[in-house]
Amino acid sequence: GAGVSQSPRYKVAKRGQDVALRCDPISGHVSLFWYQQALGQGPEFLTYFQNEAQLDKSGLPSDRFFAERPEGSVSTLKIQRTQQEDSAVYLCASSLSLWSVPYEQYFGPGTRLTVT
Amino acid sequence: AQKITQTQPGMFVQEKEAVTLDCTYDTSDQSYGLFWYKQPSSGEMIFLIYQGSYDEQNATEGRYSLNFQKARKSANLVISASQLGDSAMYFCAMSRETSGSRLTFGEGTQLTVNP
């Protein structure tokens, strides 16, 4: 079946522009996660959804970052007034649910954001 | 807070040999999950193996096994019979509870398999 898809795969934004990154999780997956991966580092958690409810947004680095999943499937990560330090790969992952095996998260290919 | 430490930035192994990638963790939680992911140069994270903190037997998945030593707080990945396609970045990660909750990742180990 289809895996997690993300679009766009690459995005170049000028400093100060707003960007929107899209994630299509695996059909039927209840849990959805966003991670940020800086060059040469491991991913870092940003936020988590259970269906349409955003249950944890403690990893969002500033109030310029906003995520939504209005119908419990597709999710969008929005970054307002982009800064150079926002340059990173943004990974989306989905899983069946927190409490059902298998526990693994399935990752999309990521969106590489470059802010110039 | 949870923390994962991977002390080997890079590892080299000959094709068909076994290799161990180190991972230590720190947590005050009684129950937690440990994961290994592979990230090829294409960028996608691929799940390899999972170990719950209450699992008494080490997890195995094909050529992958997780050497879980709870007292030492280590969760090393062993890859047997290395293949050229195993060349990639490998990340150790952990979750709170033995569940699929948010993951905390280490810095990763770049594995190169030589022919």
Description:
The complex is a heterodimer of chains A (116) and B (115). Helix content of chain A is 0%, strand content 47%. By secondary structure, chain A is an all-beta fold. Chain A is globular and about 40 Å long. The mean pLDDT of chain A is 94. Chain B is mainly β and 115 residues long. Helix content of chain B is 0%, strand content 53%. The radius of gyration of chain B is 13 Å and the shape is globular. The model of chain B has no long low-confidence stretch (mean pLDDT 94).
SSE diagram, text form:
The complex is a heterodimer of chains A (116) and B (115).
Chain A lengths: L4 E3 L2 E4 L5 E6 L6 E7 L6 E7 L2 E4 L8 E4 L6 E5 L8 E8 L10 E2 L3 E5 L1
Parallel strand pairs in A: 2-11
Antiparallel strand pairs in A: 1-3, 3-8, 4-5, 4-9, 5-6, 7-8, 9-10, 9-11
Chain B lengths: L2 E3 L4 E5 L4 E3 L2 E3 L5 E8 L6 E7 L7 E2 L2 E6 L4 E6 L8 E9 L6 E3 L3 E6 L1
Parallel strand pairs in B: 2-12
Antiparallel strand pairs in B: 1-4, 3-9, 5-6, 5-10, 7-8, 8-9, 10-11, 10-12
Q: Strand tally of chain B, please?
A: 12
Compute the CA-based radius of gyration of chain B.
13 Å
Low-confidence stretches of chain A: none
Largest sheet of chain A: 7 strands, mixed
